[in-house]
Specification:
This protein has one domain. About 40% of the residues lie in helices and about 0% in strands. The chain is built from three helices and no strands. The radius of gyration is 16 Å and the shape is globular. The termini are far apart. About 15% of the residues are buried. It comes from Immersiella caudata.
C-alpha cells in the first residue's frame, strides 16, 4: 500500500459517521487517511477467506484526495463528504447448485 500507515485517534471498526465527520471537520484526519485505514483493516482480515471487492487503491486515493481538496477549498457538500462507507454483504447459495 502506498504511504505510511496513518496515525489517527479513531478505531475505524467502531467509529460512527458522526465521529469521522467531527475528525474531518476539525482537520484531525483527511479522507486519504481514512481510505488507507480501511484498506489496512480489510487486508488484516484476509484469514476470514472472504471475498473482498475493493476499488483499485489508486482510484480510491485519487477520489479521496479530490474530496479533501474540495473540503479545503469549498467546504463539505454534505455530512458524509469524504467519509468512506464500507458495505458488508453476505451471499448464501444452495449446495445443490454445485452438484
Amino acid at each position: 500500500m502506498a504511504g505510511p500507515e496513518p496515525q489517527i485517534p479513531v478505531d475505524v471498526l467502531t467509529a460512527t459517521a458522526g465521529d469521522l465527520r467531527r475528525l474531518l471537520n476539525s482537520g484531525s484526519i483527511n479522507s486519504v487517511d481514512l481510505v488507507r485505514l480501511y484498506v489496512i483493516q480489510i487486508a488484516e482480515r484476509e484469514y476470514l477467506h472472504a471475498i473482498n471487492a475493493v476499488v483499485p487503491l489508486d482510484k480510491l486515493l485519487e477520489q479521496a484526495s479530490a474530496l479533501d481538496l474540495e473540503r479545503e477549498t469549498k467546504g463539505p457538500r454534505s455530512p458524509l463528504h469524504g467519509i468512506l462507507i464500507p458495505l458488508k454483504g453476505k451471499l448464501y447459495c444452495s449446495l445443490s447448485i454445485h452438484q
